[in-house]
Design a protein that fits this description.
The protein is mostly helical and 557 residues long. The protein has five domains: 83 residues, no CATH class; 106 residues, no CATH class; 127 residues, no CATH class; 125 residues, no CATH class; 56 residues. The chain has 23 helices and ten strands. It has a three-stranded antiparallel sheet. It has a three-stranded mixed sheet with strand order 8-10-9, covered by helices on one side. Keywords: Coiled coil.
Length: 557
């Protein structure tokens, strides 16, 4: 319980708090004050609240605490960075929201600090020394398709965590420092890494840190992945037939969980490639990215950089594919049985080119995502108490009581499954693979796949042909789904200028029927009046007068 802050100090920020504690254990007693008081040991504190990824949450927690307590964010951040505990008295002293006597220093430039510590060398050494698990702590839980490796990390949290390590190493290099020496080192540290307001990184420092981070992550990826030297050798020799034969002979390599999921992650990134070229690319790289031939980049007004490194693949010419079924009608491009005349050509990744960027990204919230998905199906969507969501000929029955993400995943599953009539195990696996691709794009948790299906496929006589068609179907269905999603995502509600002919006819008939009914009612009323009201001369004369006036008006017109 707070002693200086009022008991209801969090009242104005309850929505933010509810969003924050959703990621903690149910009976958590976390408050803005407790977060600030444990800022120096925030990792351990959040783990006690059963937070799965404290590295991705502590920045949000600090932001909430700063807002609710009315204290500068930098006060809490500095406690975290220097591992110095805060007290409620210190927090209240700087709380403009609850302490009318709070005197915060006006923003001003910090005094010039002569930096005598080689922070750059410390940074370089830490990027080499820190173990791999340090970086993994900041990896985003959801499996996305980031444009770069850096995008798959909680970047702000990672940089703050890294700078904390820099500060510890800085203190370690001071031999038995006095309190004044530590304070001097702290001022140098802040002056080197932060701008004058201490809320943002210095631009030059941030660029340096990001560049070091990119190189480190690239090196880690290369250590984990070994390119297939045999495939690369055949490509360099220009032996296209041998290349095709190798891929076909080793096609079942891609039935393993690791290889198949790598293929699924590549589906959207390599949209313009045939199946065989996608596999050839994955033999050479750990993860794929957008890659095209030179003439395709030139069409997009992009040029190849001077020192760009090409990736060798087979020449492409789009095969004829049934867009409804995904069946290959005519294989015009490189196939698994290519002849010698198929050329081997250089391809270049987007990062090896320069020019105007034209990359479209989807930025949606769960509600908007649900609305767009709802437009993609003609079936009625209903929520019911079910063990699992199902789809029939007329409705999509979604399981109630789920989280937003679970509902979205189930809706994608139902839409994908509703497009086909066959429900054998291989088709179900194919549909689940398509769902795997789509939910990754939306930043949702990938669905689990039954790899026993692929193991069974390996034992069949025509297993390779079926597996090849499976890969093709997954590509076509995924691309078709995302094209449909994009169309509905950008479309606007049509503005109705006038009704259609059918609607006008229907409306006219309704008005006619209404008019007939009104006439009948009026006649009935007149009959009743005649029966109930005796005829009088005054009425007759008044009627004649009205009729005469009406005729005169017509004559004057």
């Amino acid at each position: 319980m707070p002693t200086l802050f009022p008991e209801d100090y969090e009242k104005k920020n309850l929505p933010k708090k509810r969003k924050l504690i959703k990621q903690m254990k149910k009976d958590t007693e976390v408050t803005a004050l407790s977060i600030a008081l444990h800022a120096h040991e925030i990792y351990d504190y959040l783990k006690k609240q059963e937070v799965k990824n404290p590295n991705g949450l502590f920045v949000e927690a600090f932001q909430y605490a700063s807002t609710a307590l009315g204290v500068p964010y930098g006060l809490i951040d500095e406690a975290f960075l220097t591992r110095t505990p805060l007290t409620e008295e210190e927090l209240f002293e700087f709380s403009k929201a609850f302490n009318p006597k709070a005197q915060l220093p006006e923003k001003s430039d910090l005094p010039e600090v002569v930096i005598t510590i080689d922070f750059y060398s410390i940074v370089q050494s830490l990027f080499e020394e820190l173990p791999e698990y340090f970086w993994k702590k900041y990896k985003k839980e959801e499996t996305l398709l980031p444009d770069t490796e850096v995008d798959s990390y909680h970047l702000e949290s990672l940089l703050q965590g890294f700078l904390q390590e820099v500060w510890h190493k800085t203190k370690e290099q001071l031999a038995k420092p006095s309190s004044q020496e530590i304070e001097n080192a702290r001022e140098m540290f802040l002056a080197y890494f932060y701008s004058n307001d201490q809320k943002h990184y210095r631009k030059e420092t941030q660029e340096m840190l990001l560049e070091c981070l990119r190189k480190t992550l690239q090196q880690q990826s290369k250590k984990l992945f070994k390119a297939n030297e045999e495939v690369i050798g055949l490509l360099e020799k220009g032996q296209s037939s041998a290349v095709s034969s190798y891929v076909y002979d080793h096609l079942f390599d891609w039935t393993t969980k690791e290889f198949y999921q790598r293929f699924l992650r590549s589906v959207v990134k390599t949209k313009n490639l045939s199946v065989i070229n996608r596999l050839l690319l994955l033999y050479q790289q750990a993860e794929t990215s957008e890659i095209k031939e030179v003439h395709d980049w030139l069409k997009e007004n992009r040029t190849i950089k001077n020192e760009a490194k090409p990736v060798l693949l087979l020449g492409e010419s789009s095969p004829k594919v049934d867009r409804d079924t995904g069946e290959i009608l005519e294989e015009n491009g490189p196939s698994f049985h290519a002849q010698e005349h198929i050329p081997i050509v250089p391809y270049f990744e987007r990062e090896e080119t320069e020019g105007r960027l034209a990359v479209r990204k989807f930025e949606t919230n769960p509600k908007q995502l649900f609305t767009v998905l709802e437009k993609m199906t003609e079936k009625e969507i209903v929520f019911e108490e079910l063990e699992q969501s199902i789809v029939d000929d007329y409705r999509i029955h979604l399981k109630s009581g789920q989280t937003e993400k679970e509902v979205l995943i189930d809706l994608v599953k139902c839409i994908v499954r509703s497009e086909g009539n066959t429900f054998d195990s291989l088709t179900n696996f194919e549909n689940d693979s398509v769902v795997f691709v789509i939910v990754m794009i939306f930043g949702l948790e990938p669905v689990s796949l039954d790899f026993d299906i692929l193991e069974h496929l390996k034992s069949q006589q025509n297993g390779k042909m079926k597996f090849q068609q499976l890969l093709q179907n997954v590509i076509v269905k995924s691309e078709r789904f995302l094209e449909s999603f994009e169309q509905r995502f950008v479309e606007k509600e049509p503005v109705k200028i006038r009704e259609s002919l059918e609607e006008e006819i229907r409306r006219a008939k309704e008005l006619q029927a209404l008019a007939v009914a009104n006439i009948a009612t009026e006649k009935e009323n007149k009959k009743e009046q005649k029966a109930e009201t005796p005829f009088s001369m005054d009425d007759y004369l008044q009627k004649v007068k009205e009729t005469s006036e009406g005729k005169n008006d017509e004559d004057s017109d």
